[in-house]
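Protein modeling request. Please complete all fields; requests missing the sequence field cannot be processed.
Requester role: graduate student
Desired output: 3D structure, token encoding
Chains: 1
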Amino acid sequence: MADEEDLTNGARFAASVPPRQEPFPLKGCGSLDWGMQSRLARVFRPDTRRPGSMRTVMLAIDHGYFQGPTTGLERVDLSIVPLLPYADALMTTRGMVRSTVPAASRVPIVLRASGGPSILRELSDERIAVGMEDAARINAAAVAVQVFVGGEFETQSVRNMTRLVDAGQRYGIPVLAVTAVGKELTRDARYLRLATRICAELGAHFVKTYYCEPGFDTVAAACPVPLVMAGGKKLPEADALTMAYHAIENGAAGVDMGRNIFQSDTPAAMIRAVGAVVHESAKPEDAYEQYLKTPEKEQGLWPTHPPAAAGSRPM
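Delivered output (315 residues):
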């Protein structure tokens, strides 16, 4: 019902004050639709120490989609769910979301949307494995697709990505392109510049790739959308923290780590240390000290390698 009396006050209109317009601070994403930006803002959070920038610590646990129960992921309910409060986003599959990830955790989901071959076959022969409607039904913050630049099925994997980008534009769901590196491909700056730029040029809203030395700064600079560093194989904790630090310092907008967190002897301490590097600009040596000093009672997780039961023999 309209006000019967004119209670408006001219001063409240602030006619002399220009409209406030806050630019979306994520690289290359300022022109995206509101829904896209809103979902990306769930994955990346504002960095209080770097005004005007956003960072993310993603926890990748989607390994089972092609290699089955990976070490550290045998029981996601026991090893991963306790880590969710420390993750900005969780990269996983729809099967794991519906079976194991508590909806009340409120963790943003980056949904694995490509798949097909197992580790027993040619990995680049992937297809789209999740429709965008189901991603919306799950309330995914983004979907992820593997792109095999230089692989046997390169064109097919690029086509998977562009089809998901088209669907994502319709539904307002961003697409993360994951640059896959086969055994025969070199993880150097020249290759990573090629792979990440192709993904961005063809519409990926953010890109996940590996760290390299030298030249990672050129990889990040040449990619016009946010670049997230892949954790890769398990490293000693100090080395993984150093790699994350250098990636952030050289232009990455965050990290997506899996094995370097859930295969750590103390995963909760490790993800918190990674968060200190990404969000608090902690030096790697300081983050490692934090990792070592995390009280055991705060770790509270199934160890990566559960002790053998009484009376059993080691395999």
